[in-house]
Amino acid sequence: MLKILIASFLIASSVFADTKMKKISDSFNDKVKMVKETDEGIKLHFETHAAVYKVNKTNPKFEQLKKLLEKSKNENKEVKVEVSIPAMEITSAHN
Known about the structure:
This protein is α+β, with helices and mostly antiparallel strands. It is 36% helix and 40% strand.
């Protein structure tokens, strides 16, 4: 019984480690509803997507993304974003 338990644990650990290594991303078009400054960067809400998204200051494109996302909000125009999941971090944005 102990051998089965240990084998099950090893298999489960391997599967868990494998899934943690994979990056999942999504992209969508939406209008920015809210931009909030934080110590880490900015947090965003969109009109039709319920999650809270973020852009970290550690992102090399932080200033560019911030400017584009704020412009989308101010002009009430859609922007296309690419998001890293499950972190909900915006990795790129385009008009």
